[in-house]
Amino acid sequence: MTPALQRRALSLSTFSFAVCFAVWTIFSIIGVRIKQDLGLSETQFGLLVATPVLTGSVSRIFLGVLTERYGGRLIFTIQMLTTAFATWLLASVHTYPVFLLAALGLGLAGGSFIIGVAYVSRWYETERQGTALGIFGVGNVGAAVTNFGAPFLVVAYGWQGTARIYALVLVAIAVLFYVFAKDDPEHVAQRAHHEKPVSLAEQFAPLKNQQVWRFSLYYFFVFGGFVALSLWLPRYLIGVYGLDIRTAGVLAAFFSIPASIFRAYGGHLSDQRGARTVMYWAFGFSLVCLFMLAYPKVDYIVHGIRGPIHFSTQMGLTPFVLTVFVLGFFMSLGKAAVYKHIPDYYPDHVGAVGGLVGMIGGLGGFVLPIAFGVLLDLSGVWTSSFALLFGIVLVSLLWMHFSIRTMERENTQVALDDLPDFPELSARHDPKVHGKKAHVLEEWHPEDVGFWEKKGRAIAQRNLWISIPCLLLAFSVWLVWSVVVAKLPAMGFAYTTNQLFWLAALPGLSGATMRIFYSFMVPIFGGRLWTTISTASLLIPALGIGYAVQNPDTPYLIFLVLALLCGFGGGNFASSMANISFFFPKAQKGNALALNAGLGNLGVSVMQFLVPLAITTSVFGAIGGKPVTLSGGEQLWLQNAGFIWVPFLIVATVAAWLGMNDISSAKASFKEQAVIFQRKHNWVMCLLYTGTFGSFIGYSAGFPLLAKLQFPDVNVLKYAFLGPLVGALSRAATGWVSDRWGGARVTFWTFLSMIVAVGGVLFFLSIKEQPGAFWGFFAMFLVLFFATGVGNASTFQMIPIIMGREISRLMPTLGADQQRKHAERESAAIIAFSSAIAAYGAFFIPKGYGTSISLTGGPSAALWAFMGFYVICAVVTWWIYSRPGGLLYDIERGRTPLESATQAGQTGVRT
User: What are the φ/ψ torsions at residue 868 (nearest 5 degrees)?
Assistant: First the structure.
């Protein structure tokens, strides 16, 4: 590699990337005209300018892999030509939905970044990669080119002409790049030696590392925030300072230019001072700038001795421009520092890792403009966008700092845990007297009877009884839409039945998805910290619902977003169950999990009982907002459906932080937990738990609206809470049944009972016009709820026993203590992961009702499908676990002693 070839590769890539980036951000200028032509709301405008960012972000991970396999010269050229075609077509569309589709194609321009990163990094040695990639990143200046030049093109040629000019320029650059660029040396060597491309599995292997996802969060802010502000600032300057589009575009360039050109300097600093140091600078100074930008205009009146004193906190135009200039400078340093990390840590996977990091960062550019518009619509405060960015950078800084501290502890011989939190107190700190950290349990042996009776029981019970109300509140917020949707029509929201079922179903979809990630969080972060964070996160949807339902003009999109955010509550179950499973000995684990889950599930019933009461009275007085008067004269405070949980969530968050513990031996990386994906019983238990818990949560979400539609003359909300109440209590009260008779046997009979109960529901729906049909229908659903509660406890009781037996079979060379630790770790992970999969029932059951009603006019088709699923679950339970010769047959009947069959911590079965 000669210096001349290196400079050619770098200069061509940087120039091509700059042109692509200019195309990628074109909506920041032409979008303003499109907004005026179509009369778009702030939220619709945010969605329009963010849509190209979605394609550019998601495509990065695939384009990075393709670049590693086929070389940057070919992939870069194809990408530019494809983008040019989509940009040319943009000028021929006229409606908002088609604009969105065209914008998706235009967004491929954003994928050029990862192509260039993978291509350029192969031309430079490690000690110069930071500088080279920093120079390449200067191509971000394309956003400034658009902000500065596109307004003049729009004035001269219209936005359609501007789009065509951009397309033609991009075609020319694609041709020049293909003609003058050379294939990178590594790709040439592979072809010369006829080497097979690296497999996709090998390319994606590093993506399971937590570190990669941490880098992704950094880039979500430094790059995603940069893209979002580049798109948003022209609109902000027009709205706040009343500027015309040309002036706003030029001033917005004062942010995008330093946020681009100083990236080269950031790469140089990362090579010289270290990427970690540069990241601290980037996050620290960004935090200060964003605090200043986030402070809204406030008028103060101070009553002085000589009369009132008036002053305002509004930031003028000049200080605003200077502050965003400084912000852009430090964000550019951060962008370079993030991508300095990647070739250092993952030199053979730059495309895959860089693609993921770039994708998450690009998604920031998609999500954040939408969030800016939503926050502006909800709050009416322009600076809310900067407040959101302030929160993101604060979380990023704290996560980075604590991760670095953790790595330092793991890689140094100095006992840092013996040092005090405050150095000035070192003279008074004696580790032997004060201990290391009160909340961290360094030694935890619940199977030791003496330890358990003397110390362990009290600690475990305290953690359990703090966990239960946190989980109860999580379920309450998660399923609150099941009640809210039933009242939206009365509040003046003209939504179709299918739209209402979507709102009831979406929390289930997002909650189940979040559970997949939450499943692995406790061993990584610790139960105390994660319970605190996850409980506090519920304040976001609770407050959001409270404000959104007060205005009938609130867009449906905002309700969809709030419904998705309620999924935070659904995710909490996975982490909560995994956490509690570590605290109790095997003989009490089943009952502890049943109490945690059962009383936590009670949150659904508490919500369905409390919310109908709270919305009929002014709980919070004037600060809670005004009521809506219905046609019958009744007053409704629907906002209380969200606000009612806020004080309880604050108390629970504080209690979790002050009263819970972390278990040091329960720490594990994602890689250590990911072994469960190779265990077939993990997938079997996901199926069975979907049949039990998935049914419980799905029926809880869908029953109020289903009953209201099928029996409109009955005040369903008076009775809806009883179903989840029965299901939650049956789970909490019947854990001992599975301990006594065996989880597999109980699960099998549970599914048979559910089959019969669904048949009863179908029967009473068929005679719903007859007197008393509702009570038969309701009684059958109570049977269903009771059975799901029993099954919820029995399936979780099975998991530790199954894994104890499987670990002793799979790892016979390990000692008993190591087998116990492996079984506990895998059992906790399977409990959490199966709860994640099962939670999709909260989406599929309500959505199944809606689809069935839409297609057939009634819910019977969905119920028949549910019955068929229970038949499958019953057969699987019997065949694999409870039949003679099944995995648990001898254990549950006392023919194989549990202790000899399982050398790890499992739930005891008493015969």
Answer: -60, -35
| Angle separating helix axes 317-345 and 126-137, nearest 10 degrees | 150
Q: Give the Cα separation of 458 and 455 in Å (integer).
A: 6
From start to end of 604-750, where are the E strands? 628-629, 635-636, 662-663
Residues in the chain: 911
Mean pLDDT of 90-109: 78
CA angle 167, 168, 169 (to 5 degrees): 95
Contact residues for 494 (Cβ-Cβ < 8 A; gap 6+): none
- Model confidence at 431: pLDDT above 70: no
Burial call 498-530: b when 16+ CB within 10 Å, e when fewer: ebbbbbbbbbbbbbbbbbbebbbbbbebbbbbb
Q: Is 227 exposed, middle or buried (0-12, 13-18, 19+ CB in 10 A)?
A: buried
Higher pLDDT, 899 or 802: 802
Q: Is 715 helix (H, G, I), strand (E, B) or coil?
A: coil
What average pLDDT does range 35-51 have in this prediction? Answer: 71
Quick one: pLDDT at residue 868?
92
Strands 628-629 and 299-304: unpaired
The C-alpha atoms of residue 847 and residue 853 are separated, in whole angstroms, by: 10
181 and 9 in contact (C-beta within 8 Å)? yes
Task: Choose from 448-462, 589-603, 693-707, 818-832 the range with maximum mean pLDDT.
Answer: 448-462
- Please state, in angstroms and rounded to a whole number, the distance separating the CA atoms of residues 813 and 360: 42
At 638 the three-state DSSP class reads coil
Structure tokens at 468: 């239960």
> Is 443 in a helix, a strand, or coil?
coil
- Would you tell me how many other CB atoms lie within 10 Å of the CB of residue 770? 10
Cα separation, 374 vs 368, whole angstroms: 10
Q: Name the more confident of 177 and 826.
A: 177
For 141-203, the DSSP string reads: GHHHHHHHHHHHHHHHHHHHHHHHHHHHHHHHHHHHHHHH----HHHHHHHHTTPPPPPHHHH
Asked if residues 88 and 2 have their Cβ atoms less than 8 Å apart, the reply is: no
Write the secondary structure of 126-146 as one string of H (helix), E (strand) and C (coil). HHHHHHHHHHHHHHHHHHHHH
What pLDDT score was predicted for residue 760?
Answer: 92
CB 20 within 8 A of CB 112: yes
Cα-Cα end-to-end distance for the chain: 74
Over residues 804-814, the mean pLDDT reads 75
pLDDT in tens, 661-719: 888 765 554 555 556 667 888 888 888 988 887 888 778 767 777 887 888 877 776 77
Q: What is the pTM of this model?
A: 0.49
- Nearest-angstrom CA–CA distance, 303 and 580: 55
According to the 3-state scheme, what is the secondary structure of 509-531? HHHHHHHHHHCCHHHHHCHHHHH
- pLDDT at residue 752, as a whole number: 94
Which long-range contacts link 101-105 to residues 24+ away (Cβ below 8 Å)? 103/27, 103/48, 103/51, 103/52, 103/55, 104/51, 104/52, 104/54, 104/55, 105/55
The closest of 257, 13, 263 to 146, measured between CA atoms, is: 257
Closest of 55, 122, 60, 123 to residue 86, by C-alpha: 55
Exposure string of 707-728, with b = 16+ CB inside 10 Å and e = fewer, is: bbbbbeeeebbebbbbbbbbbb
- State the amino acid at position 201 in one-letter form: A
Provide, for the chain, the percentages of residues in helix, strand and coil under a 3-state DSSP scheme, each rounded to the nearest 5: 80, 0, 20
Q: Which residues contact 898 (CB under 8 A, 6 or more apart)?
A: 801, 891, 906, 908, 909
**What percent of the chain lies above the pLDDT cut of 90?**
6
Say how far apart CA 259 and CA 262 lie, in whole Å.
Answer: 6
**Average pLDDT along the chain:** 77
Report how far apart, in Å, the C-alpha atoms of 178 and of each of 21, 164, 497 are: 18, 22, 54
